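Final report, results section. Input specification for complex C-07:
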Amino acid sequence: MTYSFQFRDVFAAWEFLLDGLVLTLELSLFTMVVGLAIGVAGAAARVYGPPWLSRPVAVYVEAIRNTPLIVQLFLIFFGLPSAGIKFDADTAAFIALSINLGAYSIEIIRAGLEAIPRSQIEAGQSLGLSGLQIFRYVIVFPALKTMYPALASQFVLLMLATSVVSQISAQDLFHMASIIQSRTFRDFEVYVVVAAAYLALAMIFRLLFAGLYQLVFARR
Amino acid sequence: MIRELSFIDVLYLIAATRWTLALTAIAFAGGGLVGLAVALLRVSGLAPLRWLGGLYVLVVQGTPLLAWLFVFFFGFSIFGITVSPWIAAAASYSIYAGAFLGEIWRGCLQAIPRTQWEAGASLGLGFTQQLRYIIVPQALRLAIPPTVGFLVQLIKNTSLAAVIGFIELTREGQLTTATTFRPFTVYLIVAAIYFALCFPLTQVSRRLERRLHVAR
Amino acid sequence: MSLVELLDVVKRYGRHTVLNGVSLSVEKGEIIAIIGRSGSGKSTLLRCVNGLEPIHGGTVSFDGTVVNDPATDLRKLRQHVGIVFQSFNLFPHLSVEKNITLAPKVVKRVPPAEARQLAEAVLRKVGLAEKIDAYPDQLSGGQQQRVAIARSLAMSPQVMLFDEITSALDPELVGEVLKVLEEMARDGMTMMLVTHEIGFARKVADRVVFMHEGRIWEEGPAAATLAQPRTPELETFLNAVLH
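Structure output:
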């Protein structure tokens, strides 16, 4: 039996794909911003903070990093309502993804902060700079530069991981695949097309991140 | 019919964990073979081979794991082939793990300084022999901490197999929730079980990493 | 009152006693060379003066202020004590100018225009005026070290500490750095140098301090002490260094 691929049907449903793409992008960008903020604050707490601050952060990081994202998502979307807190799918998605990325970001940024040689800090101290001044002028920029590749990688991984929100029926790009499939019955084609869409997104994100690096960190 | 959440359910959840581990093992085995091939392709002397390995990694690392699961499980059904969740999962995870392990191992191979290769060449060893006797033994040591770290990722990622009906811990959690209507407690237990699996491995990986750095 | 005063200073690292009751006074305008084997405690001694190393016994005073007193504002004190490190420790992401003007602008609130003039002035002193807009990775080791000296000078310290500042340099770059030090000495700067450059110590230092096993083993006028060591340990050390 020969099978004829009918990608045309999938492409005809491009409006669905676009709608899904918009949510995927929104989720990705929002999560990156929030995740980065959590990452910087948490990493600073871990490296420079007192024990009563750094230990809870460590617990948070370990709890998130040693459990699957989908379970975290289900806990927030399906689990919290029984405790009285109800979120709609999109909000639950935002929250779960941000909490998840935040934990990974803390680890990455923490490594960047710890990579700054003690001698740099001593040089700053010896010039009479305060702790905050040293953090701002001596530590932040070189640390960001060191951790940039790992952070960019993590962000791309996150963008791909947003596909999991389809499982709580958030209307992201991946969810749209199921919708198109149910209308066209082109299972194979639709998931291949969607996979290719993610691949294109991933490459665009990588290029943008690389460009940003050149703009901000590369001299000459 | 709603049932009360009981200790038996917890036992069922724990029992389902064996499928999580089984899938992890298969993924690691399959992915290991693929990863080895990818790593060797990427360090080979022939540009087209390197390019091929690079393309594989680029594609797999740029697509969601869910997509592979769906393509294999739902997609192939249109060819008239029924793909069981096991086959779909095994194939998807092997492809996925292969790319990431390949990258990790490539990094380890390339971390061995050029001078080691040169020393081998100067002694008259060919490429395969240099690899076998000089490079790989050293790279192996380097590879253990990140490989163990990836094992943790793998265990967590098996949770996605639930969406194609593969019975493992997360799927069992979904089923238990459906009958007991206690999602919070159930998923908390599920999370705790994953944590119990992953955290010790994470610690092992960290300890190995530290010891490795001290030794160097 | 001496500018820098150490009295019975004791410092331990775990169970190892690095400084075992060290007493030393440095007067304004004096140039002290501290020599000794590695592990004798000489770098640690220097780093106690600006509070980089906490001590376990005795007192360290600068201009009357007790450095190791927890109540002391170390930040204020460090504006008056300059230190140059063996590994330069320039900030790699900042240009030479920004390296030099960071502390004046941020700590002393010097306005930007004035700060740049200050940078130009200190760079002229170390002979690197033309490198003001360069970045550390574009400079040789000797140049980086001279920029590090300029950076410390920009805060107008009353005393300069030098922690083996030529040890990490290629031999041919050492001279340019020592020249800068000689000029600073002529200008009357109070200096404490930990160094291996015995010839430099003999020529430029007023006093030499020989450290051995965490104590000041021998001390005296530079030229005389180095020519006629009184203790066998110093003699052995000098023979080893001047082979």
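Chains C and B do not touch (no CB pair under 8 Å). The mean pLDDT of chain C is 91. This concludes the modelling results for the funded period.
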